[in-house]
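Follow-up to my post from last week.
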Amino acid sequence: MQEHWQAALTDMRSRLSQENFETWLAPIGWGGYDAGKLRLRIPNKFYAEWIRLHYLDLLTDSLRAKSGERSIDVLWEVDERLASELKRSTETPSVSVDANKKASSSTRSDPNSAGKSTPPLGLRMTPGTIPPPSQNNGPSFGPARVSEPPRELPNLNPKYHFESFVVGPSNQLAHAAAAAAASSPGARYNPLFIYGGVGLGKTHLVNAVGHRVLESNPNARILYVSAERFTNDFIAALQNHKMDEFRAHYRNNCDVLLMDDIQFLGGRDQTMEEFFHTFNALHHANKQIVVSSDVYPQQMKEMEERLISRFQWGMVADIQAPELDTRIAIVKKKAEQEHIDLPDDVAHFLAEIVQSNVRELEGTLIRLAVKADLMHRPIDLAFSREALRSNQPRRENLTTVDDIQKAVCEYFSIRISDLKSHRRHRSVAQPRMIAMYLCRQRLNTSYTELGDRFGGKDHTTVMSAVRKIESRILSHDADVLASVQAIEHRLNRS
Ligand code: ADP
Ligand code: MG
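User reply:
Got it. Predicted complex:
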């Protein structure tokens, strides 16, 4: 197995940038393999999280293909020796390079350029084994079963509970519906259809339903499965003449079916057909079904009408991109979970610069923590700006609404309170419109959020202010042009 592991790594090396490979995969130590359990040693617990989020599927796929194993669980072991080796290699860049350690690559020698590739070192880790992400412990419908069908443990993500989910206006409805479905499975809201953009918490909520049901009924048979996994299982079952087992698994041995990313079934006619019958069997037996998708039912491409209409039988709830306060709460919660000391102003800053995707928000926080640790710096605002700048080719991405408001006020010599007031005098109305325009243009902040940030104005007010400035710029209004350019110049310098 160790050779297969090395070969899988070589595969990954060709798929990833050298930076990412050296940072995240090269430091992994081999820990052994036994009966489907692969032990990997890592310098600290952040590696497990990061690798799971970004590389684990690719790695285990490649490993399965090479070894012929059908299911591989990864057990992570934090090995402090790896951390100290890494530390040593970073402290003495390009000197005494240990030939056996690919990790001591020169990509880390300059902490200022390290950016996203900086390895996490010594972040208050607890040595010991981190529970595996348990992605692959479902049954298998492949050929030549070695052992008896494995016990069907629900393969829920241990981190995705209702308790770790931050509720705000953007996700309130989906959260409430999920909680209701979990408290009386199969009764109301069946099926529950959750839709929302990428990284907005669908998988988190779907898993939370599973956990909540298990809390009140530990014997409930929960099946969490991505539509992709369902498809693969189905194909394997067909090939290996195991349809009976497949159906028993999905229809008879299941009390709650949590099907993630259903849009994957689009255009896969046979799988859709099978899912349709699975759905009917479960629904008929009053079993709870929760489905997630990144598009609204009617917009799912090449999805059968009859399935779409089934999805609308129950409850359809959407998740929108979170607004600022929710983003702040999420990033704080994540920091707390990961034991990262995060001052309020930095939480605010991170929430401002990453607006549309919670996964990215979390990634940015982790990168920052990793970098602060490596450089022995506290996570304060100055450090955060500096650290994230090297990752951001477009510096305007690091500007915040506050920055723009401040720059506009300085330029026009007015007060922030003027900007947020409802006064209509030209001396404040024009700067206010310019500030709104700049926020929209540089940050793409939503009109609603801008309305809030400018003293509680309606989104239509913001929209028309932005349009007004746009049209003045288009008509070469010298005054407006000069102001906008001067303020941009100011912002680009800071
Ligand atoms: P999706 O399935 O919609 O693409 P995920 O459920 O995988 O998104 O969420 C991406 C990441 O963001 C996960 O780590 C999840 O825990 C986190 N996340 C998303 N929304 C929230 C929220 N409201 N509160 C806490 N964490 C969240
Ligand atoms: Mg998801």
